[in-house]
Each structure stands twice: as C-alpha cells, then as structure tokens.
Amino acid sequence: MNNNNSNSLSADNQASGSGAAVVNNQPPLSRYESQKRRDWNTFGQYLKNQRPPVSVAQCNCNHVLEFMRYLDQFGKTKVHLHGCAFFGLPDPPAPCTCPLRQAWGSLDALVGRLRAAYEEHGGEPDTNPFGNGAVRVYLREVKDCQAKARGIPYKKKKKRKFNQTTSSQQQQHEDQLLVKNPKLPA
Hints:
Blueprint lengths: L2 H14 L14 H18 L12 H11 L5 E2 L21 E2 L2 H17 L12 H18 L13 H17 L6
Antiparallel strand pairs: 1-2
Subcellular location: Nucleus
Protein name: ALOG domain-containing protein
Pfam family, one: ALOG_dom
C-alpha cells in the first residue's frame, strides 16, 4: 500500500474527528453540475424562508419570478434608469447612482440550470415552473431593458450553414490540386 495515501486518509480522519475512513467513489462534479447543485440548494432555501414556507411541489412561476427579483440585490451589473444622463451609453464617463442588478445572461443561465435540476429531482417537464412562459417573458424583458439602458445590443449568434456552393468550390479546389500533383491519392 502506498504510504502517502494512508497518511492522507489518516490526516483526513484526524481532521474530521472520525475513526472511520470516508471514501468517495464518485468522480468530482463538473463546474456546471456543482453550480446547478448550489443554485438548487439556494432556491430551496429561498422557498423555505418564505412566510409561510413553500415546498418545491407547491412552487410555481411566481416564486421563480420573485426569486429572480430577490437576486437583483446581489447583482454586479449597472443598469441605468431612464432619467440617468448615462442611459444608453455603453461606457459612462463617470459613476452614477443607478442600481446594480443581475445580468440578463446570468439569470438566463440560472433558469436553465434550475430547470434541469427540477426535473432531476423528480419534477415533471410539463409542470416545471422554470420553463413557464411567464419566466421566458420576464427574461426577454430584462434582456431588452438592460440592452437599452447599457447601450449594448444583444445579438443572437447565427449558426453557419453548410451550403452547396461551398461544397462544390471545395471539390474544384481539390480537383485542381490533383491535376497539379497526380501523385496524390484520388
């Protein structure tokens, strides 16, 4: 047996105050899975702190919307108000008193992770509050509002399509190479 391994196990046991070795046979979670677990636990805690407490089974899209609004207080993205002199400017020249909010992209990613976690914890896809239309509308409104306030348009990335002309041009190029160098395999 490797001496380093037994030392690290005994050090872990001494640190935890336990005499039994704790062995974790599961591979470490990916960043996404770790974040999804943290998000799910945070949302669960948010529901428990409601008065009266709400179970996940009782949760609906209104709880999801309230949760996203609650998270705004921890945001780091400056969103200029309509009356602000810097409204619509991507790089304001001076500080202002406009509020910090959660960025649209962060909320969108959060909803995606929580939507997956809901179903992994036994929720039905057709009753998933994170996939509700009201949540999608709210996210779209946040996206549009932040784009206008910050002067940064969000453009959807277009997927490149493989077209026939590119394919035929590639074939012509390969044919020309074969004519110039007949030793290349066909």
